[in-house]
Protein 1
Amino acid sequence: MEDMRKDMGVSISDVKTWRAREHALELVRGSAEESYMRLPSYCAMLEAKNPGAITHIETDNNNHFIYLFMSLGPCIRGFHSVIRPGIALDGTFLKGKYLGTLFVATCKDGNNQIYPLAFEVGDSENDASWNWFLTKLRGAIGHIDDLVFIYDRHESIRKAISTIFPNAHHGACIFHISQNLKNHFKQERAHSLYFRAAKTYHIPEFDRHIVQIFNIDPHVGNYLHAA
């Protein structure tokens, strides 16, 4: 709106500005409908040009899109050969025309950098979506000894892991818990001790930090105990 006023000397409404922006994006990227229609050919090309890549598209009886799964061949092979068997699970909102959720399974590599393992596009974080994603993930990576999942305590993730990876360990993300601590409890000293407890490798040291947290604020200690 400001550019049009400065460059053209014309004032336009919010609605017209938004419509012009959407039209320009469609000229550059194409429409959302066209993109969904191209998904099957995109997946076929991805598997043809990327040995070992795995893709799945789920549709309903009317051939309408439900889910997309994708895991690249090098990511799967790297996970089996050099990556520690720990997988972080999360989902984030998509902001396109049809909204939806991007589901991700990531790891940490030897340089402590994010290592992408698999992706899903679905409707929302619910039981059906997480079950479908983890079922496809299990098909992609197979059985892994001592596998660990980290997530934000979403109940749908917990149930899906328990069903599809019954022998895997799973725990809560320490950053997610720390954000909850900051939002619900105003005890900075307890926050600091929480991170020390979460990152220690020795049980006596862990117990000592937990006792200190209970001494500072029993409500914080009870919350962590429940977590």
Protein 2
Amino acid sequence: MSPITVFQNLLFPPPSSIYVSIMSLVSVGSMANAGLSEIKGKHLQYSKFLNSKEPKQVQISSKIGMFAMYSPAFLFGIASFFVFPDHGLRFLLLRFALTIHFLKRVLEVLFVHRFGGSGVALDTAFTVSFSYFLSTVTMIYAQHLSEGLPEPSIDLKYVGVGLFLLGIGGNFYHHYILSTLRKTGEKEYKIPKGGLFDLVICPHYFFEVLGFVGVSCIAQTLYSVCYTTGAALYLIGRSYATRKWYLSKFEDFPKDKKVMIPFIL
């Protein structure tokens, strides 16, 4: 079976939208480049990778910065239920998945995460916030455009719901583990333990990617697949950068631990 036939079985035909077509390429290219930059040491300026000594860099608190990153995408997820007409179960599931994903992130910022002494560069907060917002808008718009197109012969939306729930649950669980590493008032970083942290450095990234694989299976559009591919490439790069950071900070950090995918990567 040729790759073209596989895509025809799994995805809606690409919509006749120049915007969606361009954004599909941009999503893969820009995030793959961002992941490569992370490996090379050029990081997005937030969390432990914030360079507080960089000149002319306006910084805000981690809590405000992270809240600003996720809120616009969450608000558009809610608005999409009123902006776009109902196109059936698949469209409803996609909007619910994206809205729940960013609602979870907002609630984690407010009630779960414990932030260290680092912050977020203002330009990074704006860039990431705009990226999340634009990708959410585009994914929902691409699904809207699929209305009336031939359905994929292999229906993956229920598989997608299962993967999404597994991904969002696993991501939350490992974020909770990270939040319990520091006691009240503590700022220093520690080596995470428990869950899949015993196998990989960034299991929360693994489950985040798994969740977006679920979203792609719900949507079954070219853009959703391109976005998920780009997100995975970026988070792999961020995971390698995290490994390098831990090795530089902790002499007893295990050097053979996988970065993101248990037993594989």
Protein 3
Amino acid sequence: MAARMGCEHYTRSCLLKAPCCGKLYVCRLCHDAEEKHQMDRFKVKEVQCSECQTLQQAQKVCQQCHVQFGEYYCDICHLFDKDKKQYHCHLCGICSFDPCRIGPQKKYFHCDKCNLCLPQDLQGNHKCVENVSRQNCPVCMEDIHTSRIGAHVLPCGHLLHTSCFNDMVRTSAYRCPLCMHSVCDMKAHWDQIDKEIAQSPMPTEYQGTTVKIMCNDCQAHCTVPFHVLGMKCTDCGSYNTAQDGGLIQQHPGPDNENVTGTNTEQQHDQDETAMPH
């Protein structure tokens, strides 16, 4: 009965004959978990009916007992499953069974530069990254393009598995692992840091001290007041910044004028400021 109903991955009434080793498995994922090699789904030629055990050419309905192997069948990917409004995108090269891209197809468009099907509300409203899904998830280092785990599109255009994104947020990691851009709207966090800085003046010896920073969100370079709680970008207001040099302290000169000098004991090279936790 288990084989007839499929496996934990798919609902189907047939087994695939692996073109690599000739063994029968419910799906490529079950095969890959047991074997030391991967099944090429596109090269599958034969399936075995789970009802009558007839080995036959891959097709939607058994030639012997006429049981339907799957409500949905793709004769390119050899994907059998219950109907989830899946569709095969010839430009992606696979069926869109990612939970974020399950049809109907009219809800999605294929972005040529990203080389990926995306929801219609992102058309003209996302940052393109060339062949973005052809890279591994930068958190778990597993494949994104063929993964059954949903993909989350970050504001910077990079992709993470949705589960990996949720894990990041739970651990207070708010920056893209690839480009360090903030992964969500951080205005509320920046406002909170503003309040904390206003209530926590720096010691006398650091008052008037400035530092050069680079903003990870807008890439601006600016000189701002130094504070241990964070340095705010003067262009976009983000605290997602990194030091771009040492501290610059203001020392009173003999004529009561400020003389700018670099505190060599406080030199840092591209140290990142702390993100809110």
